[in-house]
Amino acid sequence: MAQNISPLAGKLPPESMLVDVDKLIAAYHTLQPDPSIAAQRVAFGTSGHRGSSFQTSFNEHHVLAITQAMCDWRVQNRITGPLFMGIDTHPLSTPACITALEVLAANGVEVMLSEGDEYTPTPALSHAILTYNRGRTSDLADGIVITPSHNPPEDGGFKYNPTHGGPAGSDITKAIEQAANVILEGGLTDVKRMPHAQALRASTTHRHDYLSAYVSDLVNVVDLDLVRDAGLHLGVDPLGGAGVNYWGRIGEQYGLDLTVINKGVDPTFRFMTVDWDGRIRMDPSSSYAMQSLLDVQDKFDIAFACDTDHDRHGIVTRGAGLLKPNQYLSVCIDYLFQNRPQWSDKAAAGKTVVSTSLIDRVVERLNRRLYEVPVGFKYFAPGLEDGSLGFGGEESAGASFLRRDGSVWTTDKDGIATALLAAEITARSGRDPGEYYATLTAELGESFTDRVDAPANTAQKKLLGSISADQLQDTELAGEKITRVLTKAPGNDESFGGIKVMTDKGWFAARPSGTEDIYKIYGESFESEQSLQRIFDDAQKVVDRAIGK
């Protein structure tokens, strides 16, 4: 079950593996998806539709159909305010934005494009929606984020954020997905469209300064005055992503000693070190993808990076190197709930079912409520919007939290604010997040976590996705008595499409992959690495028996 690490992992990619951008964009415009083939249909995952034009899974036809479906959905649900639209630096994002604007303008939608065609981080777009909607009860705004997140350069992505500013819920995405596929099947005859030049000149097309609005408000979510006064030397690698010009403005506006290590944007992402599997991936939680920043970690008091749309964070300290997302989430929760006196004493801490149980222990000690949900940041959006959640975080390095006064900041993941929080933590506590985490584990127990993959065909994945606790015949896991079996998240009683098996000293959770013939196993032990390995070994046997392998 061990990962096969590529010999290129952690190294700059050879020229031969870089994407041919011209061919990629040509495929976007020329290849037409066949809606009778499942892999070529519109398919919304936990956060939008993703694919590659080379695989005919993300092409102009997809964007036309999805955008028209979104326009129709807005009409049906009386969404009449402006639509904020932003893109990241993936090469397919710009042509997709052009296509989307042609449809939006033809449908009479008021569209807010970025000033100067600046790239727009996901949190800046969420912030814009919420800022516009504050105090309004009608003519509410929503948004589109064109990004495949940290995926390889050849991928494209398209995501809808409704009026609450965060990722759309399953009820919305299913409706849009179904409508878009009907439009595809109908040969796009229902699509309204106008030429791009005309769309840019349309009275409904406007410009919005996302960068200034977001950066000027940052001080209300992170104590940047404290960071400045502490004189911390900060390093950041935007990984060639949408926030590349945000960091310089942040440093300048708040007087921070902040060095942007890489200011480059290149559609091939040739400056990225290769990920574990031999692919280019802008994943700030991967030590292989983060190798360039790790090489200079000793030059900074603390350093960080964000993925391509800047909704995920990676935190690097001198002593601990790259923190695992689970480690930093635990630190954030412990720190925030002790240093935000204006937050409601009823505000809960949110985590996903596959996040570390160290969070459970932290939250219990804080005497706060734990809100545990399936994978997907959409489950945190309502709570962050109304203030009933102080913090929401995913094990995949995505998190957001309230403003310092306890009101909503963003309802989508915010890699920028979460990264800057690491500097505030260091400035106030005198410990960087790595040292802070060491203190936590000394007090609450050391956690060993990992994720591995196991093979499974389509039928087996379907069985795992609908598994019930009754199908589990085992009574022990890694020599410990099984104390609890979950197929629904305790926080909202929603199925998470898999199973979680727990003991007093560890757990595993298994979920089928939506894109590959594998299932994912997440595990944790509070004993040792050896105990964690036993959990993984037992987990695969338990799941294989349950799904009939």
Automatic annotation (TrEMBL):
<feature type="domain" description="Alpha-D-phosphohexomutase alpha/beta/alpha">
    <location>
        <begin position="213"/>
        <end position="317"/>
    </location>
</feature>
<feature type="domain" description="Alpha-D-phosphohexomutase C-terminal">
    <location>
        <begin position="497"/>
        <end position="538"/>
    </location>
</feature>
<dbReference type="GO" id="GO:0005975">
    <property type="term" value="P:carbohydrate metabolic process"/>
</dbReference>
<dbReference type="InterPro" id="IPR005844">
    <property type="entry name" value="A-D-PHexomutase_a/b/a-I"/>
</dbReference>
<dbReference type="InterPro" id="IPR036900">
    <property type="entry name" value="A-D-PHexomutase_C_sf"/>
</dbReference>
<keyword id="KW-0413">Isomerase</keyword>
<dbReference type="Pfam" id="PF02880">
    <property type="entry name" value="PGM_PMM_III"/>
</dbReference>
<dbReference type="Pfam" id="PF02879">
    <property type="entry name" value="PGM_PMM_II"/>
</dbReference>
<feature type="domain" description="Alpha-D-phosphohexomutase alpha/beta/alpha">
    <location>
        <begin position="325"/>
        <end position="440"/>
    </location>
</feature>
<keyword id="KW-0460">Magnesium</keyword>
<feature type="domain" description="Alpha-D-phosphohexomutase alpha/beta/alpha">
    <location>
        <begin position="42"/>
        <end position="181"/>
    </location>
</feature>
<dbReference type="InterPro" id="IPR016066">
    <property type="entry name" value="A-D-PHexomutase_CS"/>
</dbReference>
<dbReference type="InterPro" id="IPR005843">
    <property type="entry name" value="A-D-PHexomutase_C"/>
</dbReference>
<dbReference type="GO" id="GO:0008973">
    <property type="term" value="F:phosphopentomutase activity"/>
</dbReference>
<dbReference type="InterPro" id="IPR005852">
    <property type="entry name" value="PGM_a-D-Glc-sp"/>
</dbReference>
<protein>
    <recommendedName>
        <fullName>Phosphoglucomutase</fullName>
        <ecNumber>5.4.2.2</ecNumber>
    </recommendedName>
</protein>
<comment type="similarity">
    <text>Belongs to the phosphohexose mutase family.</text>
</comment>
<dbReference type="GO" id="GO:0004614">
    <property type="term" value="F:phosphoglucomutase activity"/>
</dbReference>
<dbReference type="InterPro" id="IPR005846">
    <property type="entry name" value="A-D-PHexomutase_a/b/a-III"/>
</dbReference>
<dbReference type="InterPro" id="IPR005845">
    <property type="entry name" value="A-D-PHexomutase_a/b/a-II"/>
</dbReference>
<dbReference type="Pfam" id="PF02878">
    <property type="entry name" value="PGM_PMM_I"/>
</dbReference>
<dbReference type="GO" id="GO:0000287">
    <property type="term" value="F:magnesium ion binding"/>
</dbReference>
<keyword id="KW-0479">Metal-binding</keyword>
<keyword id="KW-0597">Phosphoprotein</keyword>
<dbReference type="InterPro" id="IPR016055">
    <property type="entry name" value="A-D-PHexomutase_a/b/a-I/II/III"/>
</dbReference>
<dbReference type="Pfam" id="PF00408">
    <property type="entry name" value="PGM_PMM_IV"/>
</dbReference>
<dbReference type="GO" id="GO:0006166">
    <property type="term" value="P:purine ribonucleoside salvage"/>
</dbReference>
